[in-house]
Design brief:
By secondary structure, the protein is α+β, with helices and mostly antiparallel strands. Helix content is 41%, strand content 20%. The protein has 3 domains: 233 residues, 4-Layer Sandwich (Metallo-beta-lactamase, Chain A); 87 residues; 155 residues, Heat Shock Protein 90.
């Protein structure tokens, strides 16, 4: 209190002055500032009618009032803006501009301000005077008003911070010391809406190169205290967070969401396991089906060899041919097992794989082109496509879609179904479309087809998980999309993924 004469304007930085009024024993001091800049001087947060006479007197001691071209209003409260209409009359300039945010301009017009507006959000958040003086504006929404902002003068590295860094001080000091956070704490707890919103503003401010912070309330803060003060402020619970009931409700909500997330993860894990078991049963059936014919042929060849050997009419050339035929069938059976082993082998890490190769693997596993399936599959390849993900899971997706078409064919007893598998590039994406002529999907069923446990088959024939798992794999594991729609003759499944080629 003894260091400054508060009857006079105080220069806090080059050409920047405090022009406020010291209110004896008032913990809520308000601070207007004046930036001397020739005929384009700037008045910052001029205050209410309580300080009006003192502020005018102090500005006059520095420059003529008519030199003021800009009045900055960081928000709309009366302790900051109420004196503006009277100050306008004294300045008496037609080109006087109120510098504020457009959200704030909607409210301060109710003070009967007559000057024009310089809305910062419509002027690139910057003001450049003809002398070259520049002010940068940084929005700090809801601290404590929707259109709140701070003003930064980069030449002197001074920040006019509005309500942020304000303090309620019973023993007011012009400049802050190391104890200032304790004085500013209550003000911010009551005026800042929440810790999250307040931190959003502080993160913007801490990126600035600051020598001085000039708040609307409290004490002016010099560089040596700024960093520590910001860190203390960032950890401050404020607004709705200081309400014990709300804070507990928030924590309960967070815990509830965590529990639901874990429940969903566990459900998905169980769905995958259940789907794998169901598909394994189907695959064993497929293996048995694919082995039945070669085993029958081998059995027949062995019977012929045994019969001819007993009759001593077996020739060496015929023996050689029969052995070769059996080896061929055994090799086919071995390849079938290898295909299914690869299909079930888990992928630990994502890798770049050929979509074309994955589709061919799926076609080999399902083997629907054999005659007794009454299904013809045609592949249309635009170009070689690649994706980043898990190839075995992608094979599983194609198998699930093909199996679904096969099941529909059997349910509807369609003699012959044609399937077109088309792979093409679409911009930066890879598209795989699987179309059939199996009469399409009923309109009532179409929106539910990817739902877990939804199936049109008898409970003994399906779990309703195949297409649900397929969609989960593509959309959750590979950041793609899987959709289905009806075409003129049947249905078309479309897989869209980023093409990594």
């Amino acid at each position: 209190m003894t260091k400054h004469n508060y009857r006079d304007a105080i220069e806090i930085s080059r050409n920047i002055y405090w022009v406020g009024m010291y209110l004896q024993d008032d913990p809520f001091q308000c601070h207007p500032y004046f930036i001397k800049n020739g005929n384009e001087s700037i008045l910052v947060d001029p205050g209410s009618m309580i300080e009006f006479e003192e502020t005018v007197r102090k500005v006059k001691s520095i420059a003529d009032l008519s030199s003021i071209k800009y009045i900055i209003l960081h928000h709309q409260d009366p302790d900051l803006a109420a004196a503006v209409p009277e100050i306008e009359k004294l300045i008496n300039r037609d080109d006087l501009l109120i510098v504020t945010h457009s959200r704030t301009a909607l409210l301060i017009k109710h003070y009967l301000i007559s000057s024009g507006y310089y809305n910062i959000d419509k002027n690139d958040n910057k003001l450049i005077t003809s002398s070259g003086l520049t002010l940068e504006f940084h929005t700090t929404p809801y601290c404590h008003a929707p259109g709140a902002f701070v003003s930064y003068e980069p030449e002197t590295k001074t920040l006019f911070s509005g309500d942020i860094f304000g303090g309620i001080e019973k023993s007011w000091e012009f400049y802050a010391d190391e104890t200032y956070f304790a004085k500013a704490k209550q003000f911010h707890q009551e005026y800042m809406p929440s810790k999250d919103i307040f931190n959003f503003a502080l993160q913007k401010i801490e990126k600035l190169d600051l020598e001085l912070i000039a708040p609307q309330h409290g004490s002016i803060i010099k560089k040596k205290y700024i960093k520590t003060l910001i860190e203390d402020m960032k950890n401050l619970e404020c607004g709705i967070y200081i309400d014990a009931k709300y804070n507990q409700e928030l924590l309960d909500t967070i815990n509830e969401l965590k529990e639901k997330k874990e429940t969903i993860k566990e459900r998905d894990r169980q769905l995958f396991e259940q789907a794998k078991r169901a598909e394994m049963g189907e695959m064993i059936g497929n293996i048995a089906h694919q082995w039945r014919q070669p085993l029958a042929i081998i059995n027949t060849i062995l019977a012929i060899l045994k019969e001819k050997s007993s009759a001593k009419i077996l020739k060496s050339k015929e023996l050689e041919q029969k052995i070769w035929a059996m080896e061929e069938k055994v090799e086919y059976m071995s390849d079938t097992i290898e295909d299914f082993m690869n299909y079930y082998k888990p992928n630990k890490d994502k890798s770049l794989f050929s979509i074309n190769e994955a589709v061919q693997r799926a076609l080999k596993i399902t083997n629907y082109n054999v005659q007794n399936h009454q299904i013809e599959v045609k592949t249309i390849i635009d170009e070689e496509l690649f994706a980043n993900g898990y190839i075995n899971e992608f094979v599983q997706v194609i198998v699930s879609i093909l199996s679904n078409i096969y099941d529909i064919k059997n349910i509807r007893k369609i003699p012959l179904v044609h399937i077109n598998v088309e792979m093409k590039k679409d911009g930066s994406d890879a598209l795989v479309s699987i179309s059939d002529d199996a009469q399409g999907i009923d309109k009532e069923i179409l929106p539910k087809i990817f739902n877990p446990y939804f199936t049109t088959k008898h409970q003994s024939q399906g779990t309703g998980l195949g297409l649900h798992i397929a969609k989960t794999i593509i959309e959750n594991n590979m950041n793609g999309s899987l959709s289905v729609k009806n075409n003129q003759k049947g249905a078309t499944f479309t897989i869209r993924m980023k093409n990594e080629n």
